[in-house]
Amino acid sequence: MAIRRWCEARGAVLVIDAEQGYRFDRCKHCGEPTGKGTTRIIRGFPDLVVFWPSPRPVWWIECKRHDGRQTEHQKAFQRRCEEAGQVYLLARSVDDVMEFEARSRAA
After folding, report:
1. What is the phi/psi pair of residue 7, to 5°?
2. Using only C-alpha atoms, what is the Rg of the chain?
3. CA–CA gap between residue 35 and residue 74 (Å, rounded)
């Protein structure tokens, strides 16, 4: 994933990829993956959690395709992050993450 590689190249201490804990549901008749699945964490948990060297905050990143939409669980997780003063990004490409970093450094 380009966003993960970009964060690591920019000095992230740890990048947790929630997709590594992804479990595909299987058809009960043939055993093939259905294309649906769940994370082993909680509903709405973002795709990436990026830990930066102090004093930079942790970034919670939900990755979506250009036409993808957040689920209600993802929106609720985003609200909880924002209420706690955490950085939550909805990223459709590595460009979104790069733009966020540039804006936050300029502030």
Report:
1. -60, -45
2. 15
3. 19
Write out the residue range of the structural domain in which residue 23 sits: 2-106
- Reported as a single tens digit per residue, the pLDDT across 38-96 is 555 688 999 999 999 988 899 999 999 999 999 999 999 999 999 999 999 999 999 99
Kindly report the pTM of this predicted structure.
0.79
Is the Cβ–Cβ distance between 62 and 71 less than 8 Å?
Answer: no
Number of H helices, E strands in the chain: 3, 6
Give the distance between the most distant pair of CA atoms in the chain: 55
CATH number at residue 18: 3.40.1350.10
Report strand pairing: 59-63 vs 22-26: unpaired
